[in-house]
Write a structure and sequence with these properties.
Elements (H helix, E strand, L loop, with lengths): L9 H8 L13 E4 L18 E4 L10 E4 L5 E5 L8 E5 L7 E2 L1 H12 L4 E6 L13 H15 L1 H4 L6 E6 L1 H11 L22 E4 L12 H8 L5 H7 L12 E6 L8 H12 L4 E6 L19 H11 L7
Parallel strand pairs: 5-7, 5-8, 8-9, 9-10, 10-11
Antiparallel strand pairs: 1-4, 2-3, 3-6, 4-7
Helix pairs in contact: 3-5
C-alpha cells in the first residue's frame, strides 16, 4: 500500500480551510492513505462533478478549529502515530449526520488523546450517501470495510497488530462503526485487489453517542433519511437498524452516551446494549447525566463525561488490546 504524505494535496486544503492556522491547537496527521486504487467504486461518474471541500465553521480558527469534509470521491485514512506505539490500532469514524465528516472535534482531537495511550489512529474520510454515489445506502460501509482491510494491509509499516485493530465511531460515525461490527462480512462491493481478501471484522467497537435506531421515537431522522430514506421498508430497517442487526459473533462493544442528548436520544445506546447482551456479545456501557450530543473531547471538559477516553482506554487494557504498552 502506498503511503501518501499530507504534503500531497490534502494538507493544502486543510491549511487553506483553516485560514493559515495549521499550527493552531492541534498537530496535523502524520500521513494519509487513499484507500481505493483511483476513484472509489460507484463514484466514477462523480469524479470531476463532486469537489472535495474542507469547510471551517469556527469564527476563530486560529484559536479553535471546527472543520468538516464533503464531496468525497477519494476516501482517505489520516494517520496519527503515537510517540510510543504499543501495537494497538483504531479506525476512527467521525460523525456529521451522514451529511458531512467532522475533522477536528471527533477526529484530530480524539486521535491525539488515543495516541497518548500508544494507539495508532486512522481517521477515515468516508463517502456520504446523499451525494449521488451508486448504492448510496452502502457507500459508507464500503469505505469502512475497505478502510479496515487497508489498515491491516499496512500493519507491518506502522508496527500494529491486526488482531488488536478495532473501530471507534461518533454519532452517525457510531452507526457506521456499528455497521462494520455487524456487517463486516456483507458483500457490498466487488473486490478491487488483494487487500479486499483481508478481514474487515474489527477486534473491538467503541460507539460514542451513536445513531443506531432506524425507526421509533429514538430515531435521528436526518441520519436515517440520508442513509435509507424517510420511509424505509421493513427489510431496510432490519438491515440498517443496529438493534435488529445484533449477532453473536460481533466484536466486544463499548457504548457511551449522555442522558441529556436531545439530538440522538440515549435509547439508541440502551437498545443496542440490550440487543447485543441478549446475543451474548460482551458489552460495557456508560451513561452520563450531562454532556448533550457531540461532546467529543472539547465539550466534555469540566463535566464527568470528560472521563470517557480514560474509560475506553481502561476497557481496551482489560480486554488485552493494549498489551505491550
Amino acid at each position: 500500500m502506498t503511503r501518501f504524505l499530507l504534503a500531497f494535496g490534502l494538507i493544502a486544503a486543510l491549511v487553506t480551510a483553516a485560514h493559515g492556522s495549521a499550527s493552531a491547537q492541534h498537530r496535523e496527521p502524520d500521513a494519509d492513505i487513499q484507500i481505493w486504487p483511483g476513484v472509489a467504486p460507484g463514484s466514477e461518474g462523480l469524479d470531476g462533478q463532486l469537489t472535495e471541500r474542507i469547510v471551517e465553521r469556527s469564527e476563530t480558527p486560529d484559536v479553535i478549529r471546527d472543520r468538516y469534509v464533503v464531496g468525497i470521491t477519494h476516501p482517505r485514512l489520516l494517520v496519527f502515530e503515537p510517540e510510543h506505539p504499543n501495537g494497538a490500532a483504531m479506525l476512527m469514524l467521525p460523525g456529521g449526520g451522514y451529511q458531512r465528516v467532522v475533522l477536528d472535534k471527533e477526529g484530530f482531537e480524539s486521535a491525539e488523546r488515543f495516541n497518548e495511550a500508544g494507539i495508532t489512529v486512522f481517521i477515515l474520510t468516508y463517502r456520504l450517501p446523499d451525494e449521488g454515489h451508486a448504492d448510496p445506502s452502502d457507500v459508507p460501509l464500503q469505505d469502512a470495510q475497505r478502510a479496515m482491510r487497508t489498515v491491516r494491509s499496512v500493519a507491518s509499516v506502522y508496527g500494529i497488530d491486526p488482531a488488536r485493530t478495532g473501530v471507534i465511531g461518533f454519532s452517525a460515525g457510531g452507526h457506521l462503526a456499528a455497521s462494520l461490527a455487524t456487517r463486516f462480512d456483507a458483500h457490498v462491493t466487488e473486490a478491487a485487489d488483494t487487500i479486499d481478501a483481508l478481514d474487515a471484522r474489527p477486534a473491538f467497537a467503541v460507539l460514542a453517542y451513536p445513531v443506531t435506531r432506524m425507526e421509533g421515537d429514538a430515531v435521528h431522522a436526518g441520519s436515517r433519511d440520508r442513509l435509507i430514506g424517510a420511509t424505509p421498508d421493513a427489510a431496510a430497517i432490519g438491515t440498517y437498524d443496529i438493534a435488529y442487526a445484533a449477532r453473536s459473533d460481533a466484536p466486544p462493544l463499548f457504548l457511551l452516551h449522555a442522558a441529556d442528548d436531545t439530538a440522538v436520544p440515549v435509547a439508541n445506546s440502551l437498545d443496542v446494549f440490550d440487543a447485543f447482551t441478549r446475543a451474548g456479545v460482551p458489552v460495557e456501557m456508560h451513561i452520563f447525566a450531562e454532556g448533550g450530543h457531540g461532546f467529543g473531547i472539547r465539550f466534555a471538559r469540566g463535566l464527568p463525561v470528560e472521563a470517557w477516553p480514560d474509560l475506553v482506554i481502561g476497557w481496551l487494557d482489560r480486554g488485552g488490546f493494549l498489551e505491550g504498552e
